[in-house]
Specification:
The protein is of the alpha+beta class and 244 residues long. It has 2 domains: 48 residues, Membrane-bound Lytic Murein Transglycosylase D, Chain A, CATH 3.10.350; 135 residues, Distorted Sandwich (Glucose Permease (Domain IIA)). 11% of the residues lie in helices and 27% in strands. It is built from 4 helices and 12 strands. The strands form 2 sheets. Strands 3, 4, 5, 6, 7, 8, 9, 10, 11 and 12 form a 10-stranded antiparallel beta sheet that branches. Strands 1-2 form a two-stranded antiparallel ribbon.
């Protein structure tokens, strides 16, 4: 015998089938469990197969109609537009070669040396400094260069340009390797770099023409040379204006 649920507008009946429970019947008829119990005078909710239950008005068997899933519209695929491949731009040799930037010296080392309060001895009074070595100037002052580079054979004595006191002697300047700084009168400091060895110590007084180091290739250089600077009140100046 088939279970039957009439439209609930006028009420109806339901015949209990095997496996039914009040909750399943309530779902089928759309009537609450409590309403079913009250309509049928039930206290414990026990059911018997074949039992006819009254379905109170207002209940109905709700059948959900399953709508077919909407088919997603396929996106319109645009035709692939092939861009015209441009030939690579030709580079000139000047663009290919990276522009050379001279390495910057460790300004902190020089600054700390210049902060040394050692007092320079009196100058000779000659007026101009002497060249620390005799050689060909291969790099002049300016355009990012704080001094001049003088090509000399390795082992050439480097001499103090004027009377002074050594305020730095060491290899803390990566670019210039073994370097000596000498303080002179009038706020002048001379710098001697790329030495193979240093012949003086910090705090030592030196005389004009005294050997303070030996030329070499320490630091950043591919040939023996002396890097020489003149600094006035901590700023680099053109050495040629101070040399005889």
């Amino acid at each position: 015998q088939m279970a039957e649920a009439k439209p609930a507008g006028a009420g109806g009946t339901y015949t209990v089938q095997q496996g039914d429970s009040l909750s399943s019947i309530a779902r089928k008829t759309g009537v609450g469990v409590t309403a079913l119990k009250q309509a049928n005078g039930m206290k414990d909710g026990l059911l018997k197969i074949g039992q006819t239950l009254k379905v109170p008005a207002g209940g109905t068997v709700a059948v959900a109609s399953a709508k077919p899933a909407a088919t997603a519209a396929k996106p319109t695929v645009d035709p692939v537009t092939t861009a015209t491949t441009q030939p690579p731009a030709k580079t000139t040799p000047s663009e290919t070669l990276a522009s050379y930037t001279p390495p910057k010296k460790d300004a902190k080392v020089i600054q700390q040396a210049e902060d040394d309060d050692a007092v320079a001895p009196d100058a000779t009074g000659i007026g101009k400094m002497r060249w620390p070595v005799r050689g060909r100037v291969i790099s002049g002052f300016g355009a990012g260069k704080d001094g001049v580079d003088i090509a000399v054979p390795e082992g050439t004595p480097i001499k103090a340009a004027e009377n002074g006191v050594v305020i730095y002697a060491g290899d803390g300047l990566k670019e210039f390797g073994n370097t000596v700084l000498v303080r002179h009168e009038n706020g002048l400091v001379t710098v001697y770099g790329h030495a193979s060895s240093i012949e003086v110590q910090r705090g030592q007084k030196v005389k004009r023409g005294q050997e303070i180091a030996v030329s070499g290739m320490s630091g950043t250089t591919d040939s023996p040379k002396l890097h020489f600077e003149v600094r006035k009140n901590s700023a680099p100046v053109d050495p040629s204006t101070y040399l005889e």
